[in-house]
Amino acid sequence: MVIGLTIILVSFIFIITTHKDKTENFFSVGQLQANVITNYLELEKEFFYYEKILEYNEYKSVKEFAGDGAVPENCNEKWRFNSDCEPYFKEYLKEKLNDNLGENKVVNIDSDIEVYFKDFDLSVKTNTAEVNYDGPIKVKKKPLVNFEELEKLKSDIRNCIETKNMDSCNPESNSGKVYAFRRKIADILDKNLEPEEIFLGFRIDMSDSGIKNSIF
User: Fold this and answer.
1) pTM higher than 0.90, yes or no?
2) Cα separation, 136 vs 61, whole angstroms
3) Which listed residue, of 43, 63, 136, 180, carries a Cα 20 to 30 Å from 167's Cα?
C-alpha cells in the first residue's frame, strides 16, 4: 500500500510540475504577443505623428517657395536664366523643407517627397522568445506641387524670351521690359484648416533675362 501511495504521489507531483511549466510558457508567449501588438500600435501612432509633421511643413514650405518666386530671396522674385536666379524647383523646395523640418532630417524629392526622421527599436523579449523589430521612420507622400507643370512653365518662358514674344506666355502685367507672371501651383489648408490656393509670382526683365537676345 505504501509503495502504491508513493507511486501515486510522485505521479501527481510530476503532473502538477509539468502543467505549471506549460502554463508559465503559455503566459510567457502570450505576454510576448501582447507586447509586440502594443509596440506596433505605438509605432503606428508615431508614424501618424511624423506624417502630420511632414504635411504641415510642406504646406509652410510651399507658401515660402511661391512667395519667393521659386528662386532665392536675393533674386527678388525675378527669374534670370543661366544664373543663381534660374529656378530649380525641386532643389529650392527641398531647401525650404529642410529648413522648416530642422536638423537631422534627410529629405529627398523626386516623384514623391520622402523624409527620414529617425530610427526605431521596438524589440521585446521574454524567458522563452525574443522578437527584434527595428528600422527607420521614413514618411513618403505625393508633393503638393506638380513639378512637371512647373518645368513646362519654365520651358515656355524660355521659349517666349528666345522668340521675343512674351505675350504668348500670358503675363499678368508688364511695365516696359519687365513682365510679371502669376500661376496657381497648389491647393493647401491654411492655419484655420480652410482651403487656400497658392500662386507662384515671378518677374522677367527682358533686358536682363540671362538669355542672349540681339534685340535687347
Assistant:
1) no
2) 24
3) 63
